[in-house]
Amino acid sequence: MTSSSALWQPFTLGRLQLAHRLALAPMTRSRANADGTPGEHAADYYGQRASLGLVITEGAQPSEDGQGYLNTPGIYTAEQIAGWKPVADAVHDNGGHLFIQLMHVGRMSHPDNTPHHRQPVAPSAISAEQDMFTATGPQKTPAPRELSTAEIHDVIGEFRHAAASAIAAGADGVEIHAANGYLLHQFLSPNANKRTDEYGGSVQNRARFVIEVAKAVAQEIGADRTGIRISPAFPLGGLDEGDTESVRAQYRYLVGELAELGFVYLHVHHLGDDELLRSLRDTWPTAVLVVRYGREREQIAADIDAGLADIAPLGRFALANPDVVERLRTGAALNEVDPATIFGGGTAGYTDYPALTEA
């Protein structure tokens, strides 16, 4: 079995009682329908993984502007709310709890991938210069349109509405995606945010949009139903947050402000600055989730054992193993991920990975 006994200790997460310290990390799978409703096999996929306890979904856009990739789900229309209900039911019926991740991609988009085919939006009119997969093949992300101050307030309203929609769909809460190169992360990054108004310039101003989104969501659905994800110094989407001290200053300020809201968890996609992670852990009053790229099986509990995290979300291990909790608990072998089926397609590489009882 996975060695750390801490991994198997129960945990209270806000309103939720978790049987252990594992969770499902959010992973884009690009299998939603054209109207942004979850695909026909989404309930099976998430229901299969409900033993992870805390199930954090793939990113769901809060608006048409929020979509970046092909076939990602939304959580802002009546049809999308109805489409998420079977997913929530499947997770609950199998003993899990569902948090829907709210993801606005900002400039990490292409007009060919969105319902309205409009220019992407961002803090500043600076292209990510990234390759984006579209129906006709890879294309460069175009220069986005800079959001006006009034439009920033509209986007905050979109997050508020999406959070309410997630609860209406039966979710237990939401995770605000302020990481991985997407819109909220773009506001934090000085090479993507060149604004001269109250949303750009200083550490405090660059954090303002994230904090205002967080306050709006907490006001709408309750802080004890809200988590937030950050990824300090992650260079995804062409972002460059500066030197180590600049990154530390930005995130110590941001997390200090967010800590006062009483969110149920902070989810850190961690690149390796353990000094920063320790200071964030010491600042944050509730649960901390930490995920790292490339962890091996025997490293899953390392951050919990070190006192840096309370919960360890799983990505590729959970993707390929619907019963990953049982496999880790018993020491059973793990299925390997098929990279060719991660994005798009049907059941292959999605709901057909065998459980131990089928192997």
From TrEMBL:
<dbReference type="InterPro" id="IPR045247">
    <property type="entry name" value="Oye-like"/>
</dbReference>
<dbReference type="GO" id="GO:0005829">
    <property type="term" value="C:cytosol"/>
</dbReference>
<dbReference type="Pfam" id="PF00724">
    <property type="entry name" value="Oxidored_FMN"/>
</dbReference>
<dbReference type="GO" id="GO:0016628">
    <property type="term" value="F:oxidoreductase activity, acting on the CH-CH group of donors, NAD or NADP as acceptor"/>
</dbReference>
<dbReference type="InterPro" id="IPR001155">
    <property type="entry name" value="OxRdtase_FMN_N"/>
</dbReference>
<dbReference type="InterPro" id="IPR013785">
    <property type="entry name" value="Aldolase_TIM"/>
</dbReference>
<keyword id="KW-0560">Oxidoreductase</keyword>
<dbReference type="GO" id="GO:0010181">
    <property type="term" value="F:FMN binding"/>
</dbReference>
<protein>
    <submittedName>
        <fullName>Alkene reductase</fullName>
    </submittedName>
</protein>
<comment type="similarity">
    <text>Belongs to the NADH:flavin oxidoreductase/NADH oxidase family.</text>
</comment>
<feature type="domain" description="NADH:flavin oxidoreductase/NADH oxidase N-terminal">
    <location>
        <begin position="7"/>
        <end position="334"/>
    </location>
</feature>
